[in-house]
Amino acid sequence: MENFKEIDKPKSNCAVVGVYNHPQASIITYYALHALQHRGQEAAGITSIYYDEVKKKKKYAYTRGSGLVLDVFSDPDILTNVLKGDCAIGHNRYSTTGSSTKANIQPFNMIYHSGILSIAHNGNLTNTLNLRKKLQEEGAIFQTTTDTELFLHLIARSKKKNQIEQIIESLQQVHGAYSIAILTENALIAACDPWGVRPLNIGKIKTENGWSYIVASETCAFDIVNAEYIRHVNHNEVVVIDQHTLETGEFKSYKIFQETPEAKHCIFEYIYFSRPDSKIFGHNVDKVRRKLGKNLAEESPVIPEADEKICVISVPDSGNTAAIGFARVNEKLNNPSVFEIGLIRSHYVGRTFIAPGQNNREFKVKVKFNPVRGVLEGRNVVIVDDSIVRGTTSKALIKLIREANPKKIHFRITSPPIKFPCHYGMDFPSKEELIANYYDSEEDIAKAIGVDSLHYLSIEKLLDSVPKDPGIGYCTACFTGIYPIEIEENSDKYSIEE
User: Fold this and answer.
1) Whole-number percent of the chain with pLDDT over 90
2) Active site residues per annotation
3) All domains in the chain, ordered by first residue
């Protein structure tokens, strides 16, 4: 009895949402988290801040739990009567640092000398060990095993006079990737690390009493609540949304460090993590994925035999738009091609019960995907996918497609070979587990997973596919081994239990 996981896909570790000045802040946060469910299915939580008429002061309420957003907030009374107030933040979790215990579910809340503060974090810190050791030596007592708690201790111990200065000082002490939403008694604060590894966006919602504001990891969260996109949070930036914003429509913006380095956006956000209907780092994901597919076809076209048409299919859902781009360019190169729906994906995959004798991985693939035999049988098939990690699930998927009796199977990947683990918030396996480190050539990998040909997109064509803005670069460490942010040894593996 197991929970189904996409073993052969990288995982992004979280989604964050913040809502300011909305009469139904928690409900807005709930729907935004629902739209961002793909960024983390392990747990979810919401914290709201409201004014207690009896106590005559601001208080916070929160609900957190394991499972999907729909499961954690299945009781509507939670959103209407428990999570009161016009400000809230929320979080979807997929754990990369710290275990999956309830204590590690965000948002994290505290009451300290400067008031109430709640935080939600997407990313991964790389100096966790040193900071944690230093804080423990100074008397700090940790309640969780996740790096996010470091922010709380650093803020609470700051000697700065106001919360914005305390927050900025804490951000100057942590290294690594973070996009964070912080809720205080008087403000919603959004910040991205100096390299802007993970995305964070700002929007606004029209209400009867004026504008309310929302921040979220991806703009698909804005669409579900009818929010208007304003802009993304820049790298090395802290944005404050407060009463001043309500009165003027302007944000207060601060730098974490005076010198802003070149951004190193996670390129995998475009390849796989983000939804194609989202805008991240100021650009549409769908357009990038189409270009990935087009460049892939230019590099490795598939030539038909005789009068046949090449059948191009995707591994849904992240490969869909890239497959369309591949089919169009392959056709333009005088290789008759057509995009087809060759795999049907079940979106209701939950716990799988493996009978004795059944191949575990193959059964899981069958639960999730089913080939369309009428599309594939006797055809020269190109499968477009975004990545191969271990290769084990890809091999099982190819075996499943072979059951539909295609003539040939060609595998095309919209990213270069993954050869190095990520330390900035993606759950890649160790270097030794990555299939690209097992074999010397694409031909050898093709044989290993059972396809007639295989081609990865080159790093040059990958970089050609993504937007090019002044001062903006990309983290490609999982392909190149070049890590833009210094990594503390074993910091991403640390937990209290160890």
Assistant:
1) 84
2) 14
3) 2-280 (3.60.20.10), 288-466 (3.40.50.2020)
